[in-house]
Amino acid sequence: MKHSVLKTSLLTVFLILSANVDAQRRAKKKADEDTKNWRYEIQCLNVASEGSYIVKIFSYSKKKNVAVEQSKKNAVHAVIFRGIPQNEVGCVRQPPLARHPNLQEKNRDFFNNFFSENGDYKKFVTLTTDGAIAPGDRLKVGRREYKIGLIVSVDVAGLRKELEAAGIIKSLSSGF
Questions:
Q1: 145 closest CA partner among 36, 21, 33
Q2: CA–CA separation, 35 vs 130, rounded Å?
Q3: How far apart are CA 40 and CA 15, in angstroms?
Q4: Which residues lie closer than 8 Å to 133 by C-beta, 6 or more apart?
Q5: SS3 of 170, please?
Q6: How many structural domains does the chain have?
Q7: pLDDT single digits (tens) 20-50
Q8: Are 159 and 76 in contact (CB under 8 A)?
Q9: Mean of the per-residue pLDDT values of the chain
Q10: Exposed site from 1, 72, 93, 156, fewest CB < 10 Å?
């Protein structure tokens, strides 16, 4: 009888843990799909003279911890491919580092590795809010989906050097 109760208890714990892990995998997979589609919004907060941009990035997710990681990827992607839009509080539009529209497709292997879970993108981005979400920065946009805004700093100078060294973009001194 004791063994039966113990086995049932262990089985129950195992099922709960595996269901939780499976739910996290599904949330991560959905977030990765959104990242491959680059579904985000970006607002400029400050363009620092030290070669970094401070932006508010809005990512879509069901879970906060997934949105935090995706926000880092999305901020770096915006700097490389979309640029930073101007706003009313003094940010001037910053063009993307990539000047060719098909650069990501042309260098698919590089960017798949760069934006992978342990990719190099992490070297160029920091959360300035430590993942804390302000009350107005968590908006429900679907039945079970949130638009989550986080403030992120992107080291644009370091990112540019890395992409130039990899031969992905041309240096500013090489001409056009």
A1: 33
A2: 21
A3: 35
A4: 64, 148, 149, 150
A5: coil
A6: 1
A7: 666 666 666 665 665 567 889 999 888 776 7
A8: yes
A9: 81
A10: 1
**Predicted pLDDT at 47:** 79
What angle do the packed helices 2-36 and 64-77 form, to 10 degrees?
20
Q: What is the DSSP string of 75-129?
A: HHHIIIII-B---TTSPPPB--S--STTHHHHTHHHHHHHTSTT-GGGGGEEESS
Q: pLDDT for 147-170, tens place per residue?
A: 888 899 999 999 999 999 999 998
DSSP states along 157-168: HHHHHHHHHTTS
Joined together, the tokens standing for residue 129 give 């809010």
Q: How many Cα atoms within 13 Å fall on the side-chain side of residue 28?
A: 10
pTM: 0.77
